[in-house]
Amino acid sequence: QDFRQQRPPGDAHFARAPVRAHKLAMAAAAAAAAAAKYTGRFAIHPLLPGVAQLAVEACTGRLKPSWTPAAKRLMGTWEKVHHCMPRYAEFLQSTNKKDLKKIHVFMNEQAQAKLAMFYLCCALRLRPEEVEVAGQDSEKLMKLAGEVATKDVEPFFQDCRDFVRNYDWELHQSLDGTTVWREVEDSLFWHHSFEVTSGAAYTAYRSEVLPPQASWPDREDLPAIEAVLARCGSAVAEGGPARALAEDVYQQFLEASSMPVKASFRTALIDHGIMAGEVIYRGEHRIERPPSK
Questions:
Q1: Cα-based distances in Å from 169 to 160, 188, 202, 280
Q2: Between 20 and 30 A from 190 (CA), which of 119, 274, 276, 287?
Q3: What are the backbone angles phi and psi of residue 103, rounded to the nearest 5°?
Q4: Torsion 149-152-153-157 (CA) sign
């Protein structure tokens, strides 16, 4: 729930606004000063990391990525199911993958038996109490395995496929490329990350809070830069004209930050034969596509 909807703003709210704007501007000025120390390939105008840090300071702790609840839920189930994946591999080895259209279409009795053992293993991990109740009754165990297949495992696999559907390996690779900036200076990391994840929104945000580039102060004129960032702080503070733009920039970064997590899920799904696809990029290592014929 948006904290601003909890109660209407009163006089105290407006009294705090200038203080918050001042704190934002101070953080931005400190970031700009730190970035100004770098020259050569690390050198950009300090206003850029300054306004990037400004957006971060305004939004951190107030915006959340939409994908984390699903990721936590899926990870919790995967931690249980992955112990059974060797049995699933045995099932795949006993089938013709080209003919396997649906997970419940059994090619032969051997494949059917191996798949049943996989689901029974999952039942032991997901519903241990019910397995204990079934005891040594094979009929009850097979019925439980079928129920776990249709109600637990297959819906879980589909949820995983849906979760990774919008995975973008190029965005993932670009995100990995920004991590080097964190070792240099946090505000530089934020600037380059926003360029990757929030392109148009970040451009619109900078256009709103910064004066035309031709009028920017010299990169070594820190007092003048602080004055510009003070005005930026007012624009990004609660109720400011650029607040929504800053939030849009930061929210897009939060959503894009799902790419490494989705990559891990997607790679696991493909490697285990649960999902069709090609793994082009695994973390810092790109797998080259075969040359087209």
A1: 17, 23, 21, 7
A2: 287
A3: -65, -25
A4: positive
Report how far residue 263's alpha carbon sits from residue 281's, in angstroms, rounded to the nearest whole number.
8
Q: Contact, 124 vs 131, CB < 8 A?
A: yes
Which amino acid belongs to residue 212? P
Q: Are 27 and 230 in contact (CB under 8 A)?
A: no
The tens place of each residue's pLDDT in the chain, 293 residues long, gives: 332 333 333 333 333 444 478 899 999 999 999 999 988 877 899 999 999 999 999 999 999 999 999 999 999 999 999 999 999 999 988 886 555 545 555 457 788 889 999 999 999 999 999 999 999 999 999 999 999 999 999 999 999 999 999 999 999 999 999 999 998 999 999 999 999 999 999 999 999 999 999 999 999 999 999 999 999 999 999 999 999 999 999 999 999 999 999 999 999 999 999 999 999 998 864 443 433 33
Do 176 and 284 touch, CB atoms closer than 8 A?
yes
**pTM for the whole thing?**
0.83
